[in-house]
Amino acid sequence: MDHWEEWQKVYQHGTIVILPPDEIRNVVNGQRETYDPVTASFCEAHITLTQPLLNPLSDTEWGNIQDMLRRFPAFEIQYGPIKSFLPYPCIWYEIQPADKILALRNALHQTGYFNLSLKHTDDFIPHMSITEGLSGPPVDEELLTILQEQSSQGSFICQDAVHIVPDESFCFGVVKRLPLDGGK
Question: Which residues contact 56 (CB under 8 A, 6 or more apart)?
Fold first, then answer.
């Protein structure tokens, strides 16, 4: 971890995300690898739920998170169309229903286990990133148009959240699945 950049160090204990099903994740991962391979090398396609954890959690704390998540029913997520935060170099799939993602996020953040001092804690927009401008071609209106033309929209059922943690090379992997009510 000594070789990590400062922004990476806050993720040492991981974060909680939603992973789309393999068939969707494979398509978005391909886009990420083509248009921002550095970002793709850190983490698979995902929908961020929380800010990073402040500390490793005890079994009791994980139990609290699991109990809280089981109060939320599984639900359908729609992804697309493609949008951007240009001139900030992020191109992403819109995620709906935003209110359900934000309700999960807010409930998790209220546990006190997450670093809420980071940017975009309160103005977070649910999304699934393709580019973050760390590598690849210029992230501009031209790339946005290309991605909008080649990308589709769809949906999937969100049955769980996932705790992901980076390894020594800052590559995130799944550590724990956290089912919603009715999830597997």
Answer: 13
Say what the pLDDT of residue 158 is. Answer: 97
In sequence order, what are the beta bridge partners of 165? 173
Report residue 72 as tokens. 């939320």
For helices 22-35 and 141-150, give the axis angle rounded to 10 degrees: 150
Instruction: Give the rounded distance of the alpha carbon of 74 from its chain centre.
Output: 17
Is 70 exceeded by the pLDDT of residue 184? no
pTM of the model: 0.93
Give me the amino acid identity at 156: F
Q: Which CATH code fits 6-179?
A: 3.90.1140.10
pLDDT tens readout for residues 79-89: 999 999 888 89
- The alpha-carbon radius of gyration of the chain (Å, integer) is 16
Residue type, 91: I
Distance, CA of 147 to CA of 141 (rounded, Å): 10
Element (H, E) at 64: helix 59-69
29, HSE (Cβ side, Cα atoms, 13 Å) = 14
Cα-based torsion angle of the residue sequence 64, 173, 136, 29 in order, rounded to the nearest 10 degrees: -90
